[in-house]
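Reading a protein record of the kind used here takes little practice once its layout is understood. Each number in the token line that follows is a code from a learned vocabulary of backbone shapes. One such record is shown here in full, so that the layout can be seen directly:
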Amino acid sequence: MKIPTPREIKALLDEHVIGHDEVKKVLAVAVHNHYRRLESKFDTKSKDDEFADVEIEKSNILLIGPTGTGKTLLAKTLAKLLGVPYAIGDATVLTQAGYVGEDVENLVRYLYQNAGEDVNLTQCGIIYVDEIDKIASKTDNVSITRDVSGEGVQQALLKIVEGTVCRIPPKGGRKHPDQEYVEIDTRNILFICGGAFVGLDKIVAERTGKHTIGFGGTETEVIKPVETLSRDVRPEDLVKFGLIPEFTGRLPIIATMNELTEDELVKVLTEPKNALVKQYKKLLAMDNVKLEFEPEALRALAKLALKRKTGARGLRAEMEKLMTDIMYEAPGNSKLKKVAVTEKMIKEML
């Protein structure tokens, strides 16, 4: 495949995802380098190159940010833009092999199925693991019992993230001795992990927020905004949060996403290629009904999402609630030609 430049990748992301310019730059560079890495592994022309013996290591990505900021959307959009298969999994349902729950290797099986059961295509895909912060160990005390959904899952994930050969049952289900398996090498699969990491800013503040001032050497707290703290995240902060050092070491690229502003949420409703407003306009246009939104109505929806701290994800829920009656009445109603959504309608919905 033709690998787009980082600038081209960011431009494509801009069409689908609002805000997060710095994060999109980081992702664009990381993804470009990852697929150039794969290209170099299979490029026979470069055998006489002075860097022929240099092996480029895989750089998996960790996205940190509140719910509704677009972490999953970024990963999904990247895969679609590059034309590679992707799979999305939730870390909270994963367990160590042998326990009730989902084996971490199921993530690879989902990718294999989404790749049309093509092994080579699977091995160049992207896996996004959401809620990765939920499997952090919340205590420094070592337990004598096995940790089914915390450190144990991190250890299990570590193997496939850094690269191993997974033997997966192609049709799913539990493994058994007489079953046929498909072997998938995960060394070239790009892993993107995401999580809200609630409380991580306090850990960063403890490390960075104290300064010695005055002749007496008195320590004083310097309060930094969350946006500044999030840019200061280091692997040791993640370890203190509860991720094991080996796992954080396999996620060398850390990108932080802040809550979307009111203006950005308004843009989310209207500007992306698949913006919610455009989707509803298209649906109603099929019934020859014109849909319009007053600017104040869009802003009221954005304020609602901010108030409820649900981000862009919450916008869809509010929009669905708003549009239910309209979508119920419009189909087959020849008298209905135009619908205008006003700020008053949003306030009445509260």
